[in-house]
Predict the 3D structure of the following.
Amino acid sequence: MYAYDEIDRAIVHERVDEFRDQVRRRLSGELTEDEFKPLRLMNGVYLQLHAYMFRVAIPYGTLSSDQLRKLAHVARTYDRGYGHFTTRQNIQFNWIALKDLPDALADLAEVGIHAMQTSGNCTRNVTADQWAGVAPGEIEDPRVWAEILRQHTALHPEFSFLPRKFKFAITASDHDRAAIKIHDIGLKLVRNDAGDTGFEVLVGGGLGRSPFIGRTIKPFVAGRDILSYIEAILRVYNQYGRRDNIYKARIKILVHELGIEKFAAEVELAWSEIADGPLTLDDEMIEDIRSRFIYPAYEELPAEPDELRAAAGDARFEAWRANSVAPHRQDGYAIVTLSLKPAGGAPGDATAEQMDAVADLADKYSFGEIRVGHEQNLVLPHVARRDLPALWAALDGLGLATPNVGLVSDIIACPGLDYCSLANARSIPIAQELSRRFANPDTAALIGRLHINISGCINACGHHHVGHIGILGVEKNGEEFYQITIGGRADEGAELGVLIGPAVPYGDVADVIEDIVEAYLSLRQRPDELFVDAVKRLGVEPFKERVYATR
C-alpha cells in the first residue's frame, strides 16, 4: 500500500471544499446545469437516466481495508446500499442525491479517496495489473511507476483539457492482466540487453466507435526518462488532436491517420526539447516513491500446510481453490480472486455488507489490502495458504466464492440502459440470464476459459470488442438488438473480435450465445483448445452457420 503524504491529503480536502461551494451554487440557481457540468465532471459526477452517478477513483486498483469500509459507508449512507466496480478499477454509485455529494466526497477524503479526473477530457485513473507486486516472475512492482505517473498527471494544467479523455495502463508481467493494448498509452516494464529497467511504450489503443489495438511506439524508454517521454506524447496529442470532431478526437484516431512512424517522429521531436530536463527522474526521486509503498511482513510458511491437506476432501473447496487461487511470489502465500459474478447477479456489483465483510477478511487474511481488477472482480493479494479453507468458508457465506473466475459466467458488463443515458440497450439482464444458463460448474469446466463482454452502446465500457464473445447493444426502430463478435482478447495477444452476422433481438441473445458455445464444443480439436484459439483456427464461418441456420 502507498502511504499518502500531507500534500496529497491537502489537495484532496481542498477539492472537497471547492466542490461543496460549486454544488451550493448549483442548488441555489447561481449556476445553470450547463455551467455546472464541466465542474461536476471534474469530480466524477455524471447525470444519468435516473440520478447523478458518482465515480470514485481507485488508483492502480489498490484499496486498504479502511478505504473499502468507507466505500461501504457511502453506499449505505448516501446511495441504495451497493456500488458497482468498473473496468477502469473505479467504483460507481448510481443513486446519490446532488445535495449529498459533497458530504460523500468529504467522507471519502478522510481515507484518501477522491473522484478527481474520473471524468472529463483529462488523464484518467491510472490502472495496473491487479496482481502487481505479488505476481511470480514480475520485473518489479509496476504500482510504483503508476504512482509516479498519477502524481505527475493529477491536476496537470497542460493536460486537464485534452481533446478527449486519456487512459493509461501498466504491467510488469509477460501475461497482460491490465489490458495495456486497449489504452491510449500502455506501459510494460522490460529490461534491455544491458539489464537496465525501462518501458516498452504502446500508444493509440482504445475501443468505442473506432476500436484500435495499441502499437509499440518505442520498445525501450529508460525509467528515468518515462515522464518526459509521456509528456512528449501528450504534447503532440494536445497540439494535433481533433478538437473539431468528438468522434475523431481520441489519440487512437490521430495515430491511425498520421501513421505510427509519423506520430513517433513528432513525439521524438517534442521529446528532444524536454529530455534530460526537469522531468528526468533520478534514483533518489524514484526511491522516495518506492519507500512509501508498505509491503507485508511475510512469514516463512509451508507451501502445503496441514490446514490445506485437511480440506482436500471437500469438493466445493477444491473447485474454488482450483479456480480462484493463484500462485504468489512468496512461498506459503496465494493470490485469491473474489468473484463478483454470482449466478443471476449484476456483474461488478457489491453490497455495503459485502464490502464491509471483505474489509474485515482483508484485515484477517491479507494484511488489510484489497485489489480491484478490470474484470470487475476483487482480489486479496496476500493470503497465507494455511488460511485458504477458512477464507473460503467466509466468502461462501457472503456469496463471493463462486468458482467461475475466467469462465463463461465471469461476464464483464457495463450498466447499460438500466442506468446510463448513453446506452441503446440493456446489459445487466443479458449478463444475468447468461450467468444462470451457464451456472452449472461442470458445464463451465467443460467449456473452459471463455470471456463474455457486454456493452450497452458503442462507447464500449464493457470492452465488448475484446471479449472472446462480445455483445453490443444497438437500437433498431425503438427495439433492443445486439451485435455479436467472436475472437477478441485483451491480453498480450490482444485482438478485436469479428462480427458474425446481423444483430439479433433481445430475446434471442442468450440462445445465440449457447449456439456459439455448442459449436465450439463440437469443433474444438481437443478439450484444452480454448474458444479464442478455436476461432482463430477456424474463422467466423462455422459459428455463423450454427447461429443463423434456423434464424
Summary: The longest helix spans residues 6-28. The mean pLDDT is 96.
